[in-house]
């Protein structure tokens, strides 16, 4: 019997795995530069946290959660997203009692039982950032700019920022009623009618031509914002314009999570087909209170690492591939191998990445391995060299080879590499 990775999951293998790490780092670096600190929360949480936080009526909660009972009878769920867990931690540890805003970033796997297709997986990785506890439109602009920076740093050009405001508890209920009244008169199927009752905004996202054609004159949230929400949205856009971040108004943008209000956004990429969202986020001022915390405001995003990699591939943007090591040891015989074992340890201690051929595979095989490692230098060592107190240092680019004293070899290599 043999096994394969579960449906909807995939392995990230070398050498592409180094690009995966590089993307994860590049997407989080702008947040770190803006003072966001790293947080790690459990991969599973109380099921009720997601039900209350993300919303019972969302597909994520109602259809896609990996929920199980542990041996203690608790209902737990593999996290389908990161925000609910982060806010739970902020509340539990009273992080809001200190300096505000609480600025946090995180990275890790998430789990959604979705129908797998290109760019849509059941296990996927996000980098996320959240700014909690201060209601300032400048923070909205900052968080959006940080995502923008991350994509740009990777050399991506074909992405767009879709932006809208979803209003708040003051203006959204009235708008919702207005939209429902509009939808009531349309020629739509029962399922869509039910959706219009529960979550009318989601009907605006319907891609079917027959529905789409009827949505032309639908009222839009941005046209019905209350005074404070309109001012907030204007401020966010003014600050984005100040720092050269370009966006498109997306008044029909619908997110798959229920906690959003006011500023809401998505980054989409044209090279990805149906799963075009490479990242998304927004303001979630009601989330903390909804999960039993104080009334804390918050804004954040999560960027999809898997889809960002696909977008880079689609654009032909060079993925960073680092050499596996800088120096590779090629021993000729057991005594040389033992000597090289110590030398490679010494190199690593000096900060040089080094590996060697294990398992007595002979000169030819070991040299091939040295080439494959991407190393700049190979240390070739045989019994005769040991007796002479030297080693052969081979420059793998030029092919030049040089006998050097064994005693000072680490120092000599360090010098050559800097
Ligand atoms: P989300 O839009 O559900 O937001 O996910 C963010 C990103 O994760 C998506 O844009 C996409 O790139 C990636 N993603 C989501 N589902 C999948 C999947 N099945 N396969 C591959 N990639 C996927 C959130 O998760 C919110 N927590 C973001 C946020 C943070 N809002 C405020 N703070």
Can you describe this structure?
With 418 residues, the chain is α+β, with helices and mostly antiparallel strands. It folds into 2 domains: 247 residues, Bira Bifunctional Protein, Domain 2 (BirA Bifunctional Protein, domain 2, 2-Layer Sandwich); 91 residues, Anticodon-binding domain (Rossmann fold), CATH 3.40.50. The protein has 16 helices and 16 strands. A hairpin with a 5-residue loop joins strand 3 and strand 4. The radius of gyration is 27 Å and the shape is elongated. The two termini are 51 Å apart. The protein binds histidyl-adenosine monophosphate.
What does the secondary structure layout of this molecule look like, with pairings?
Layout: H1 16-33, E1 37-38, E2 44-46, H2 47-54, H3 59-63, E3 66-69, E4 75-78, H4 83-92, E5 102-111, E6 123-132, H5 137-153, E7 159-165, H6 172-184, H7 190-198, H8 200-203, H9 209-214, H10 227-242, E8 248-249, E9 261-269, E10 277-283, H11 287-290, E11 298-304, H12 305-315, E12 327-332, H13 334-349, E13 354-356, H14 362-372, E14 377-382, H15 383-388, E15 390-395, E16 401-405, H16 409-417
Parallel strand pairs: 1-5, 7-8, 12-13, 12-14
Antiparallel strand pairs: 2-4, 3-4, 5-6, 6-11, 7-9, 9-10, 10-11, 14-15, 15-16
Histidyl-adenosine monophosphate binds next to strand 6, strand 10, strand 11 and helix 12.
């Amino acid at each position: 019997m043999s096994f394969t990775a579960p449906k909807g999951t995939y392995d990230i293998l070398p050498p592409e795995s180094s690009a995966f790490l590089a993307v994860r780092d590049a997407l989080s670096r702008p947040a770190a530069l803006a003072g966001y600190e790293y947080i790690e929360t459990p991969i599973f949480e109380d099921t009720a946290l997601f039900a209350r936080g993300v919303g019972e009526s969302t597909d994520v909660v109602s259809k896609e959660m990996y929920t199980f009972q542990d041996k203690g009878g608790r209902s737990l769920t593999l996290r389908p997203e990161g925000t609910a867990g982060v806010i739970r931690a902020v509340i539990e540890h009273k992080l809001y009692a200190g300096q505000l805003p609480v600025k946090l970033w995180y990275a890790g796997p998430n789990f959604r039982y979705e129908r797998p297709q290109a760019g849509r997986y059941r296990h996927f990785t996000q980098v996320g950032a959240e700014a909690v506890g201060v209601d300032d439109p400048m923070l909205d602009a900052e968080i959006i700019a940080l995502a923008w920076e991350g994509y740009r740093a990777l050399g991506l050009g074909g992405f767009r920022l879709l932006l809208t405001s979803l209003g708040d508890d003051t203006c959204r209920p009235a708008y919702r009623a207005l939209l429902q009244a509009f939808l009531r008169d349309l020629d739509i199927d029962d399922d869509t009618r039910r959706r219009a009752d529960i979550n009318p905004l989601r009907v605006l996202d319907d891609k079917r031509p027959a529905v789409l054609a009827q949505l032309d004159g639908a009222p839009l949230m941005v046209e019905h914002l209350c005074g404070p929400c309109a001012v907030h949205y204007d401020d966010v856009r003014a600050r984005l314009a100040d720092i050269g971040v370009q966006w498109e108004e997306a008044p029909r943008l619908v997110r798959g999570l229920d906690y959003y209000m006011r500023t809401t956004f998505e980054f989409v990429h044209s090279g990805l087909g149906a799963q075009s969202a490479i990242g998304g986020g927004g303001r979630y001022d009601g989330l903390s209170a909804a999960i039993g915390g104080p009334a804390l405001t918050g804004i954040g995003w999560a960027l999809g690492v898997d889809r960002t990699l696909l977008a880079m591939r689609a654009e032909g943007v060079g993925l960073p591939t680092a050499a596996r090591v800088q120096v590779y040891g090629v021993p000729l015989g057991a005594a040389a191998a033992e000597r090289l074992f110590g030398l490679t340890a010494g190199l690593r201690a000096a900060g040089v990445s080094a590996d060697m051929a294990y398992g007595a595979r002979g000169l030819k095989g070991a040299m091939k391995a040295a080439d494959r490692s991407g190393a700049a230098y190979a240390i070739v060592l045989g019994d005769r060299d040991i007796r002479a107190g030297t080693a052969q240092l081979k420059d793998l680019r030029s092919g030049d080879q040089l006998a050097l004293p064994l005693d000072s070899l680490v120092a000599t290599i360090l010098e050559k590499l800097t």
